[in-house]
Structures are given as C-alpha cells and as structure tokens.
Amino acid sequence: MSDFRxxxxxxxxxIGTFAAIPHPVAIEVxxxxxxxxxxxxxxxxxxxxxxxxxxxRAADVHRVPxxxxxxxxxxxxxxxxxxxxxxxxxxxxxxxxxxxxxxVRAMRYPPLGARGVGPGRAAAYGYxxxxxxxxxxxxxxxxxxxxxxxxxxxxxDIAAVDGVDLIFIGPGDxxxxxxxxxxxxxxxxxxxxxxxxxxxxxxxxxVGIFRPTPDDVGTWSAAGISFFLLASDTMxxxxxxxxxVIEAKKH
Length: 251
Ligand code: 3PY
What we know:
single chain; about 15% strand; binds 3-hydroxypyruvic acid; metal-binding; Aldolase/citrate-lyase_domain; Pyrv_kinase-like_dom_sf
C-alpha cells in the first residue's frame, strides 16, 4: 500500500490544498510549502484534461501525492486522471450509495471494480502494466464528496459502500443545499457535519473536509476529521498579496 493511502486510512493528520492554477510552477510552489498532499481541482478551475498530467508530474518531482478532483461522476474522467498518475481521486456530489458504488467501480480494477487497462503514464506508458495492475487497487485513494441534503440523508448507506477510503465534506455546497448559509446557519451546518463525521467513522471510513483557513482545524480534528484541504493556490495567492498590499500601504 502507498504511504499516502495508508496515512489516509489510518487517519493520520494530512494537510493539503487545492491546486487550481493550470501551471506546474504553482504545483512546485505548493509542494515546497510542506503540504502532505495536494488536490488538482478539475471541477472548479479551468485546468484542461491535457494539462493534468504535467501538474501530476510536477508534484511527483517533489514526491508530494497529487490527487485530482474530477468534474463529475464519469468513469472516463476517473480513468483518465488515474492513467495520468494521480495518487487518488476525489469524486464530487455523491448523494446516493449507488453513486458511491459507481465511483468504486470506476476506480478499482476487477474483481473490486471495472476500471479499464491502458498504457498510460501510471503504467510507464505500457511497459509496466502487470506491475501497475498488481498494486493499483491497494495504492490509490478513493475519496467521495458528500455535500448535498440528499447525501446527508443517505449518509448511512453511502458510508457503508466498500471500496471508499474517505468521505470528504464540502461545507460550502452543503450549506447551500441544506439552507444553512452564513453565520445564521452555522449551528445547523456544524450539526450536519458532525452527523456525517460520526456516521463515516462508525462505518470505518476516514473523513476529510474543506476549510478556507486553518483556524478551526483543531476543532474538527478533535471531532475525528483527519484530512484537510485548506483553501487553494488562488485563495492563498489572493490572501497573501492582499495582506502584503494592506501592510505596505500603511507606510
Ligand atoms: C465545498 O465546500 O462545497 C467544496 O466543494 C470545497 O471544495
């Protein structure tokens, strides 16, 4: 098993960020920050499928595991990023157990799933297909994202799906979906998050969450969340530069 998957499953504290800038330089800057992993955000960025392989390559140079958040549930997209060498996949908007099972089928080779065999970068362009087939199911992380009212209602069934390593909570979408936005919705949103965490942990899944800042990582890690995606390269660029400009303009 890869260290990354073992650390996910064993609920080691893992800190990463989303990569949304479609250039390997941004990946190298992220990798140099000390993150435990990064997640290339194909869902909410203008990163093209062709570019993903180069971004993963840049992370590999620095030995930082790179997962990819795919744009939807298509098996073809999951296969494409895994063939490019992703260390795992984050599948957004999983709201039913059947959607979770379909993600497992797309992610794993038989007998656990139905992923197709291809001569991609992950298998050394075809030269190491048998080696890759022997280890891929054990090495790659499958994280599914629960972020809808329907997903919250179905969390017991979703968490029970074998082959899912980690349930990742998207608080932004969840807050919109359950009508718990802003400060007025905080208690409702926190209660929903705690329900997902408790159910996922009872089913033996690790739990992750998106946080825009590290401020409450301690609170959520005490609640059992071990995998954190903190903001994104673009958000940190914006926050860092804004703070610098404000400071400079004081003089
Ligand atoms: C959310 O907060 O809904 C997310 O998807 C974070 O990426």
